[in-house]
Amino acid sequence: MPIYETEKPTQTQIRVAVSVGGKLRQQYYHPKNPQDLEKARKQAKLLQDEWKFEANMLAYERNKKRKETGKSSAYVTGVSGIKMKFIVDIKHRPIRGAKTKRKRKICYYTPSFVVSGSHNKKLFCKQFNIKSLGYDMAWFKAVNFLCGTKGIYSTDDLQRRKPPVEQFAVVYKWQTKQGHDIPKERLPDEFLQKGSKSDLMRYLDA
């Protein structure tokens, strides 16, 4: 867990520790009262998300230089069995006014958490739509499904390992590099809200 909270005799200490590009980054907070504690917790969470996002960007850049193997670290969430990606749904629609039966191909993209694996020699795979459920609820349901399927009693640790929504920038870049024309409005709504106030959108176009 990248955020550690330690109770000391005189005060609480909060430590953020994230590996970025193979190097450990750390930041300490020493709140003096309950109001400062809540503020420090929020600052620590924001810093953690920022460093995780940067780490994911570096991982993506390294991945681009490797030979394509059919599997991409861009989809990794940090929880084995759960990936994050745009599900591609291909439809063939009649061409208006066409004199032939030719149809045009339309691709619909849905940001999702995909839970897959095997248990007791049975395969399982289920998708959780981030657009319809919301980012947090989709993760909550994905973790609960994974734990329920594999017989994991406690979900708390896995719930806390939710990747930052900014990681969808990595997913978007990867899948567009593979030839997918994904409209930006199909990114998670939570990402779009943050993207309007940051350099995320410029990164997508780089």
CA-based shape: globular
Radius of gyration (CA) equals 20 Å
Helix content: 25-40%
How much of the residues is beta strand, in percent? 25-35%
Characterize the biggest β-sheet.
3 strands, antiparallel
Q: Helical stretch count?
A: 7
Would you count the extended β strands for me?
6
- Indicate the structural class: alpha+beta
Flag low-confidence runs.
none
Polypeptide structure, described:
With 206 residues, the chain is α+β, with helices and mostly antiparallel strands. The protein has 2 domains: 3-65, no CATH class; 73-205, no CATH class. It is built from 7 helices and 6 strands, in the order E-E-E-H-E-E-E-H-H-H-H-H-H. The strands form 2 sheets. A 3-stranded antiparallel beta sheet has the order 1-2-3, covered by helices on one side. Strand 2 (12-20) and strand 3 form a beta hairpin. The relative contact order is 0.12. This is AP2 domain-containing protein. It comes from Leucothrix mucor.
Summarize the structure.
With 206 residues, this protein is an alpha+beta fold. It has helices at residues 34-65, 130-133, 135-150, 156-160, 168-177, 189-195, 200-205; strands at 3-7, 12-20, 23-29, 82-94, 103-119, 122-129.
Secondary-structure blueprint:
Blueprint: E1 3-7, E2 12-20, E3 23-29, H1 34-65, E4 82-94, E5 103-119, E6 122-129, H2 130-133, H3 135-150, H4 156-160, H5 168-177, H6 189-195, H7 200-205
Antiparallel strand pairs: 1-2, 2-3, 4-5, 5-6
